[in-house]
Design brief:
globular; mainly alpha; 38% helix
């Protein structure tokens, strides 16, 4: 009779950096749920988005600053501060929100799963960020 192999994590709850499941932003990265509008609404996407947008750019930018969110680049620049520069520069000129979904660096393959399985989170984020920056249009860069 063969012995059953046991794993050290068997039966133990897994912990990933202190982030609880209910705090995760992208809740369908593995495509286990409907990626369409009905599925997104069930997962909480678009909840009170209109109210957030109507609060205006100053409120959104302040919330971003208070959140402490930083960019993913090497400098980790504060996102709220960066957003605040957009609306004040060159009034009357068009402003664009550009989302870099390029996965050109070796080992990067996260953006495609967001776009494939949780697209409403991306579009909702574009709407809120675009409102904060007074953007006229948003573009999502994807390398072919």
């Amino acid at each position: 009779m063969a012995a059953k192999r046991g794993y050290a994590t068997e039966g133990a709850a897994r912990v990933y950096g202190g982030l609880k499941d209910q705090d995760r932003i992208f809740t369908n990265l593995y495509g286990k749920h409907d990626f369409g509008l009905k599925g997104a609404l069930k997962r909480g996407d678009w909840y009170k988005t209109k109210e957030l947008v109507l609060k205006g750019e100053d409120w959104i930018i302040n919330e971003m600053k208070v959140s402490g969110m930083r960019g993913r680049g090497g400098a980790g620049f504060p996102s709220g501060l960066k957003w605040s520069f957009m609306g004040k520069s060159s009034p009357g000129r068009p402003r664009y929100l550009v989302i870099n979904a390029d996965e050109g660096e070796p080992g990067t393959c996260k953006d495609r799963e967001i776009m494939r399985h949780d697209p409403h989170k991306l579009i909702e984020g574009c709407l809120i960020a675009g409102r904060a920056m007074l953007a006229n249009a948003a573009y999502i860069y994807v390398r072919g």
